[in-house]
Amino acid sequence: QVQVVESGGGLVQAGGSLRLSCTASGFTFGFYNMGWFRQAPGKEREFVAYISPNGANTNYADSVKGRFTISRDNPKNLMYLQMISLKPEDTAVYYCAASSPTLSQRPSEYRYWGQGTQVTVSS
Fold this sequence. Notes:
By secondary structure, the chain is an all-beta fold. It has strands spanning about 5, 10-15, 20-25, 35-40, 45-50, 60, 70-75, 80-85, 90-100, 110-115, 115-120. The strands form 2 sheets. Strands 2, 4, 5, 6, 9, 10 and 11 form a 7-stranded mixed β-sheet that branches. Strands 1-3-8-7 form a 4-stranded antiparallel β-sheet, with no helix packed on it. Strand 5 (about 45-50) and strand 6 form a beta hairpin. The radius of gyration is 13 Å and the shape is globular.
């Protein structure tokens, strides 16, 4: 069955770095657009970044542009989010998601979701 699992979250001081990982199985990973989303306390789930099936096309929310980098390793069914210069406002549960290969910033267009990993950035 389909499984999407995030890891790498934790507690970090402002200005620090974390790398989130997402491992996927049960579908043809290389055919899917992959995205990262986050949900902060009391907020709606929001787009963070996406990457096209072959990795050639990426897109970032303005709030993370220049600080976060999305990447993927299709032979290993892995996707990453490298986060640097973290800010307290980055605190959220981060979710990995897969869609059919149509790029989108909308959560509703993603088919498979992980359970999330908590990122907490202290001031």
